[in-house]
Amino acid sequence: MSENITERRRLTRNHMYRLIYNSKEGISKQQIAEDMGCSLPTVHQNIAELLEADLIKQGEFQPSNGGRPAIGYVTNDDVGIAIGVSVSAKHIRFTAVDIKLRVLAAKKIQAEFENISKAGETIAAGLEEFIDDNKLDRGKLLGVGITIPAVIDNANGIIMISPTLNVKNTNIKDLTHRIPYPVFVDNDGTCAGEAEAFSGQRDDFAYLFMEYGIGGAVYMNGKKYAGHNNRSAEFGHICVHPGGLKCSCGKRGCLEAYCGALRFTKELGVTVDEFFKELEDGDKDYEEIWNDVLTHLASGINIIRMIFDGPVILGGFVSEYIEPYLPRLRELAAEKNTFERDGNYISLGKFYKNGGMLGGACHFVERFVDEI
């Protein structure tokens, strides 16, 4: 009985903390009591416990219709930090956030890997340097979320396959064993989708993650759908051009081969920034490649729409450049769609360059909130 009472009290405190956490401005004791349907003495007791634990603090006075203004309570957002690390074919990126996913520091380093052990060594050294350079408090570090373009079996601790990083059936510890903090590894597109969901996106959406490779995530009723083999939303390997360009997976005609950033950077020997600068300046060769990218991207998006019949959100660093071309992409998608005259179901996500890293960090932020 006492265990049940203790757990009920914890759940009440957790619910109260979440109300404060999700409040855009401060929330008063009276508002909490009304929202939760509990007594003011219960609110007083839990607020006192959260204040003592340094999890919340007094904010600004709330507007009043008369009488003494009520104190609003807000979360103490610097009580913990989390770090997201993104590993791609050419870079490692680090982002540190507070418990509201506000970015505290960020860094990108050039890196190409001979093997997974070398990648782990580079990540661990870069992580410590990142922490030191930005004077981050290790005592507040909740954990490190690493995102990679790979199919991950977290239940058995295996990187099943990553064509981009050229690894297969590799133990996750080969990548992480040098990191002395709690660590989590997952697919980059899955993590980026998690960041979108955490930020308040729709309950149902397909997330198309566009970086050097292509990935994604599917959310239904607010929950990630992982699939039977944890390979849901491997959108990069939808076939959009049978017999076409060779993909890093070894097959031909994959969406990733046509729309991943490696295609137009490797083909032209330029950076992503340089490609879009030349495209903006009207270079005909670049326009031809980009039109082909948009055409195949529209084909892939249309397939996703036909299967899931829900919003499609574009993310990843390539999506940062897509906004001027979004009307044309919607037109191309509509032309391929049997049922719809426009492509307004396609939108850009909230996060561009750091979605995967925020999602990796989000893993530890969510755990932190759950355990209060």
Features:
5-stranded mixed sheet; 3 domains; alpha/beta; 12 helices; 372 residues; globular; Arc Repressor Mutant, subunit A; Nucleotidyltransferase, domain 5
What's the CATH H-level homologous superfamily of the largest domain? Answer: ATPase, nucleotide binding domain
By CATH reckoning, the class of the largest domain would read Alpha Beta
Give the strand content: 15-25%
Elements, N to C (H/E)? HHHEEEEEHEEEEHEHEEEHHHHEHEH
Terminal Cα span: 21 Å
Rg, rounded, reads 23 Å
Number of discrete helical segments: 12
How many strand elements? Answer: 15
The percentage helix is 40-55%
Structural category is: alpha/beta
What name does the CATH topology of the largest domain carry?
A: Nucleotidyltransferase, domain 5
Structural domains: how many: 3
Order of strands, widest sheet: 5-4-3-6-10
- The CATH architecture of the largest domain would be 2-Layer Sandwich
Poorly predicted segments: none
The profile of the biggest β sheet is:
5 strands, mixed
Overall mean pLDDT score? 91
Shape annotation? globular
Structural summary, described in words:
It is globular and about 70 Å long. The strands form 4 sheets. The chain has a 5-stranded mixed beta sheet, with helices on both faces. The protein has a 5-stranded mixed beta sheet with strand order 13-12-11-14-15. A 3-stranded antiparallel beta sheet has the order 7-8-9. The chain has 3 domains: about 1-75, Arc Repressor Mutant, subunit A; about 80-195 and about 355-370, ATPase, nucleotide binding domain (Nucleotidyltransferase, domain 5, 2-Layer Sandwich), CATH 3.30.420; about 200-350, Nucleotidyltransferase, domain 5. It has helices spanning about 1-20, 30-35, 40-50, 115-135, 175, 190-200, 255-260, 260-270, 270-280, 285-310, 325-335, 355-370; strands spanning about 55-60, 70-75, 80-85, 90-100, 105-110, 140-150, 150-155, 160, 165-170, 185, 205-210, 215-220, 225, 310-315, 345-350. β4 (about 90-100) and β5 (about 105-110) form a beta hairpin. The mean pLDDT is about 90. It is of the alpha/beta class. Helix content is about 40%, strand content about 20%.
